Prior knowledge:
Elements: H1 3-15, E1 22-23, E2 26-27, H2 28-41, H3 46-53, H4 73-80, H5 82-93, H6 96-99, E3 105-106, E4 113-114, H7 118-138, H8 140-156, H9 163-173, E5 182-187, H10 190-201, E6 204-208, E7 212-217, E8 220-226, E9 244-248, H11 253-262, E10 269-276, E11 279-287, E12 293-299
Parallel strand pairs: 5-8, 9-12
Antiparallel strand pairs: 1-2, 3-4, 6-7, 7-8, 10-11, 11-12
Amino acid sequence: MTADTFTDSTTFLISKGAAEISHPGGTLLQHLQRVAAQLNAWGAAEEVRLAGLCHATYGTDGFDRRLLDLADRATLVELIGPRAEALVYLYASCDRTATYPALRFADRFTGRPVDPSDAELRAFVLITAANEIDVVRHNPDIRARHGAALHAFFTRNRDLLPPVAWETVKETFAVRIASLDHLVLTVADISRTIDFYRDALGMEPVTFGDGRHALTFGSSKINLHAAGHAIRPHALRPVPGSADLCLITSSSLDQVAAHLAAAGVPVEEGPVPRTGALGPITSLYIRDPDHNLIEIATYD
Length: 300
């Protein structure tokens, strides 16, 4: 097949009225072209991209508007090839109510069970991802009603998606947490805690709100609550000494160890190899005045 196959397929879709059928984001033809473009961006095989372009030819369980009668499947086979057409039929015939919970296929046209190959399963989930991503990008109501269920479906079947597609799924459907802004420590003595974190770890004390206290470092901060006077809402059991924190330093651990020794803070353990959020780290462990465990680490 060549680029002419995609051109001929587009011409075929136009001849069947796809450019005049309304669809989220414009027309059905525009939607189909965006699905094919998304599959191309993910590096999908040619037959998968062709199936994505033509996936609505026989209608779908979510958009039951046929462009071609099932009795005329040979027409699509001749146009895009048997493997791509088989994927179009698999997508069109999928009974979503039966299939989505456990990826067990039932043909909604015949009522018979279907046993797709591993390659067909991967293509089906990939085309489904490209289709649903385009739909919700152009229809916030559908995202609001079905976004959580779609995210759950793709999460259950993430092993069938290439990593690049999974990342797009997460960007589209999942809540994305960018970073930690602040955390709260419940402490026995706020003044003693401020002195420790300022002198031993170089944090900057700040006062905010109605006389509240915090310690800032980098782009984050630690808010301090006095034991017995936690500010609502708060953790279920806000008690001193229950925290275990890992802090990344831009100083060498030799420099950190020397500074801690000068400040009279014993190193409980380290340096030892550990694993951080982004990869291997080397860590020292100390205790703050409330005996919270504080890990100070550098990335290797």
